[in-house]
C-alpha cells in the first residue's frame, strides 16, 4: 500500500533528521569562526587548533583512551569466558538465571551501577585497603564490568551458532581441548571478539555517569571534562572535540558491524 | 592392494568363521542413557578387520550415538568398547586410533584444504616434508590435486565430502567412522561416490563403520549391515541375509518393501509347514521346517518381486500358494511396474513385474482379475 507512495521516504527522512539533525548542526558549528556558538560567521578550523593546545583536554583524552583500551580488553577476556560457560555447559542448574544476570547490566540505569560500584569501592578500601583511593584503576574496573556484559552477549550469539562438530573434528584428529580452543574455536569466534572489544572501547569512551561516580581527583575522563566545561557555557572548541569523538565512535561501530557481517555469510556456506 | 579372487571366501568374510578370527572392534553390552532416555540399549557387536560395516536405522535409532561412543565423544553408561584388543571405553577422543568423518564434514572454515588435511598430522608432530608428501598423496587419492589452496567455502558439496574423507584418512587410522558420509550429496553424485568410497576402503584396507539411514546406500557399501531399532540391534547380517532372510517383522518392513500377512500353522512337519491365512484367502505352503507349534499365530512376509501375476489360474502343488484379486493401482517405474492387487479379504498385495517386453500391449491393466502365485520358499516365516 505504501510501496510506491511518498509516505515511506518522507517518514524515513523525518525519522533520520530527528535523529541526526542535532549531530549535523554540531559538526557544522565546530567549523564556525565565531566565538559565539550560535552565530555563524564563516568557516574556520581554528577551534580544532585551539583544542590541541589545551593540556587539560589532551590529558583527559589520553586518560579516556587508556581507560577504554584497558577496560575493553579486560571485558573481552571475562565476557568471553562467561559466554563460553553459558553456551557450553548447557544443562547446569539455573542457566537461564545466569544468562539473564549477565545481560542485566545492559538495562541497569548507569546511576545505579555507578553508585553501587562507588559503595563497593569505598567498602573495599576500608576493609581490605584496596583499591586505594579512586582514580583510573576504579574507572577501569567499573567500565570492565558493564562492557563485559556487552562482550558476553556478542560472543554468546556467535558461539550459539557455532558448529560443535568442528571442535570434535579437531579433537578427533588429535588436538587436546586447549589446543582445539586456540586452533579452532578462537579463530572462528575472532570476529565476535573484535567487535565486542570495539563495542566495549566506544562504550567506555562515552561513559560519563559511571565514571563521575568512581573517579577521583586528577582522573577526569574526557566526557567529564566536557561536561564540566559545558556547564560554564558552551565554547566552540567543545564542538570541535565532540566532532572528533563522533568520528572515532562511528568508525569503531562501523568496523565492528562490518566484521560481524563479513564473517556471517562465509560461515553459512562453509 | 586389490582383493585376490581366491582369498575372497576366506579373507573377506571373517564373520563366517568366528573361531579363527579375532574381532577388531568389540562392543560389549553397551548402554547409553541421556537422562532418562535410553539411546542405546545393551548393544553387543563384533566387527572384523577391513570390514565395511553399516549401521542402518531410522532417526532416533541410536546409530549415531553408538558411532559417537566409538569416537569417544560420548561415554557409555555401561558396557565396554574394545578396539584392536585395547579397552577404549575411557580413552579421550584425541588419544584413540580412530578418525571420524562428520555428517556436516566439519571442515575448518579458516584453513585451506591442505591445512585441513594436514591438521591431524601436525598434531602428531611429523616432519614438514613428510606432512607435505602425505597431503599430496591424499589429495590425489580423492582427486583434488588442484584444490589444495582453496578454502572449504570455495568447494562444491562433493569436493567438500572428499576433503573430509582425505582429512579423516590422513592419520592412517585403524578404524574410520563415517556419519552419513553421502547424506548431503544429490542422488547422482551419491551413486558415483558410493563406489569410490568402497574402492578407497578396499585399497587401503581400513576398517570402516558407516552410519546411514539410507538402506540402498547400506546395501551397496556394506560387507555387513547392523539394523538398529529403538537403541537395539534388530539384525546383523550380510545385505542378502537382511533382505532375503529378515529375522523379524521390523526388519522385513524396514528393508525394502514387503507384503505381510497373518496366519495360523495348520501343518507342522520337519520338511514343510502349512499356514492358513484368512487375509490372503489361501494356504501358504512353506518348503522347509519352521520352529513353531500347531495353531500358532505367525506372520509371513514376501517381497513384491518374488510373486508372479497371471490372468489364468496357474497350477500349484499342495493346493496352496495361489490367490486371486483385482488390480487396483499400477505404478509404472520404467524397468518394473508395481501392481497393487486387492484381495477378497480387502488385503492389498503389491506385486512387481519386470517390463521385459517393450511397450507390451498385452500387459495386465486396471480392474482386471488376476492370480498371484509364488514358490514354496519365496516368503519368510516370522514369529516376532
Description:
The complex is a heterodimer of chains A (270) and B (384). With 270 residues, chain A is mainly α. Chain A has one domain: MetI-like fold (Orthogonal Bundle), CATH 1.10.3720.10. Chain A has helices at 7-29, 46-52, 55-88, 95-107, 110-128, 136-160, 164-172, 177-206, 209-214, 222-231, 236-269. In chain A, helix 2 packs across helix 11 (236-269) and helix 7 packs antiparallel against helix 8. Chain B is α+β, with helices and mostly antiparallel strands and 384 residues long. Chain B has two domains: 23-250, Rossmann fold, CATH 3.40.50; 257-382, OB fold (Dihydrolipoamide Acetyltransferase, E2P) (Beta Barrel), CATH 2.40.50.140. Chain B has helices spanning 8-11, 63-71, 113-123, 128-141, 157-169, 187-204, 215-221, 239-244, 249-254, and strands at residues 25-34, 37-47, 52-57, 78-83, 86-87, 98-101, 175-179, 207-212, 224-229, 232-237, 259-268, 273-277, 282-286, 297-302, 307-310, 322-332, 336-343, 348-354, 369-374, 380-382. The chains are: A mainly alpha (270), B alpha+beta (384). Chain A binds chain B through residues 163, 165-166, 168-176, 179, 183-184, 187-188, 266-267, 269-270, and chain B through 71-73, 92-95, 98-100, 102-104, 106-110, 119-120, 123-124, 151-153, 167, 170-171. Chain A: One of its GO terms (cellular component) is plasma membrane. Chain A: It is a multi-pass membrane protein.
The major β-sheet of chain B equals:
6 strands, mixed
At the first level of CATH, what is the class of the largest domain in chain B? Answer: Alpha Beta
- Fraction in helix of chain B: 10-25%
Regions with little confidence, pLDDT below 50 for 5+ residues of chain B: 1-10
User: What is the name of the CATH topology of chain A?
Assistant: MetI-like fold
Tell the overall outline of chain B: elongated
Across the major sheet of chain B, the strand order is 6-7-8-3-9-10
Level-1 CATH class name of chain A: Mainly Alpha
Secondary-structure content class of chain B: alpha+beta
Whole-number average pLDDT of chain B?
Answer: 90
CATH architecture of chain A: Orthogonal Bundle
Q: Which assembly state applies to the chains in this document?
A: heterodimer
- Overall pLDDT level of chain A: 86
Task: Describe the largest sheet of chain A.
Answer: none
Order of helices and strands of chain A: HHHHHHHHHHH
Range of helix content of chain A: over 70%
Q: What count of domains describes the coordinates of chain A?
A: 1
Radius of gyration of chain B: 25 Å
Total discrete domains of chain B = 2
